Amino acid sequence: MIADMGAEAEIASDESLTSIFFGGGTPSLMPPVLVETLLTKAEKLWGFASDIEVTLEANPSSVEAANFAALSSAGINRVSLGVQSLDDTVLQWLGRLHGAQEALSALETAQGHFERVNFDLIYALPGQTAEQWEAQLNRALSFGTSHLSLYQLTIEPGTRFASDVRRGVFSPLDDDEAAELFALTQSLTEAAGLPAYETSNHARVGQESRHNLTYWRYQDYSGIGPGAHGRRGGFATVRHKKPENFLKAVSERGHGISEQRHLSIGEQASEALLMGLRLGEGVNLSGFETRFKMSRNSLINSDKLAHLQSIGMLWDDGTRIGVTEAGRPVLDAVLGELVADTLVQA
Predict the structure, then answer these.
(1) Whole-angstrom Cα distance, residue 183 to residue 298?
(2) What is residue 339's DSSP assignment?
(3) What whole-number percentage of the chain has pLDDT above 90?
(4) Contact 319, 286 (CB under 8 A)
(5) Which contacts qualify for 152-158: CB closer than 8 Å, 24 or more apart?
(6) Region 279-303 average pLDDT
(7) First CA to last CA across the chain, in angstroms?
(8) Hey, how many other C-beta atoms are within 10 angstroms of the C-beta on 200?
(9) Sheet holding 235-239, edge to edge
(10) Coil, strand, or helix at residue 18?
């Protein structure tokens, strides 16, 4: 990891770090001394912004929570807990190994040790009613965290869920019912002072995840370690996913990159639009025109923009465009209509 960081710093070292995110797998099982070693090296290579955000993903288990005090001392100042549900039956169905009470105990421990805490929940489950979700979300809001990630269940191809749907074991929630739960989510979080700053992420003002905002605003970030992706200087990087392959690559070449590809201007602009339009703040088209040296009409389909705006799916203030609350439940369809067909080939 240290060697991989060093190789990356030789290419991208002109700015101090504003955020670090330990994610994937179970990083909260890392010995705290290893976390401290990695952070010390990163600061030496890049330098840290005075208010750097250092996030750690963690499963809400008692085993991992036992490390929280030491991880905080090592330099972690924000934690994101994969709670998923406050219902034991749902957690079992989702295949999670922790129980609801164990998760709540981990949450309490986290709040005692870290400046900022996020936890995530999954909703729009088969058969879930508005009343059930409202009760669970209100309970989640009562814990007082500054950030919540609230995701609708998606059935990914090749998963157990996809197989179960195909065999008729269960049916996904109806689209209209899911849209009702989405609207309810926006209403309850807004009232509690955690509005959606991104489609599925809610935070008090000033408590948004700086690291995730880096992705959504299409700023550069370096991906370090097995399976990590990065975007910097117009290049997309991917590290070897299997640890043994990553270790071999670092030993032979001094870094763990398995693929590095230069993205065309059209690909960069397309990614920037698709990511940025997830944000409540929308995207600055004038800024994109300057950044990518492309005209507004090359970036978006102006006719589709006008149509989507007329039916209340998009807003346009002349400089920035964004998806309205009505458009968020059908975000993918809106983006498919809006982004210019020829953009990726540019």
Answers:
(1) 33
(2) B
(3) 82
(4) yes
(5) 152/122, 152/123, 152/124, 152/178, 152/181, 152/182, 152/200, 153/122, 153/123, 153/124, 153/125, 153/126
(6) 92
(7) 36
(8) 16
(9) 229-232, 235-239, 257-262
(10) strand
Query: Which candidate, 21, 89, 91, 90, places its Cα nearest to that of 58?
Result: 21
User: DSSP characters for 233-280?
Assistant: TTEEEEE-SSHHHHHHHHHHHSS-EEEEEEPPHHHHHHHHHHHHTTBT
Which residue reads 């080939």 in tokens?
Answer: 345
**Whether the predicted model's global pTM rises above the 0.85 cut:** yes
Measured CA to CA, the distance from residue 166 to residue 161 in angstroms comes to 9
Please state whether beta strands 235-239 and 257-262 pair in parallel, antiparallel, or not at all (unpaired): antiparallel
Residue with tokens 């979700």: 133
Q: Which of 342, 345, 346, 323 is nearest to 333 (CA)?
A: 323
Residue type, 169: V
On the question of pLDDT at 25 being above 90, the answer is no
**Which residues are CB-contacts of 281 (< 8 A; sequence separation ≥ 6)?**
197, 320, 322
CB 120 within 8 A of CB 84: yes
Nearest partner of 316 among 292, 289, 286, judged by Cα: 286
Q: How many CA atoms lie within 13 A of 161 on its CB side?
A: 13
Average pLDDT rounded to a whole number, residues 3-16 = 91
User: Going by DSSP bridges, is the β-strand pair 229-232/235-239 parallel, antiparallel, or unpaired?
Assistant: antiparallel
Q: Tell me, what DSSP letter sits at residue 172?
A: P
pLDDT in tens, 28-54: 888 999 999 999 999 999 999 999 999
Q: Is the pLDDT of residue 103 over 80?
A: yes
The count of other CB atoms within 10 Å of the CB of residue 166 is 9
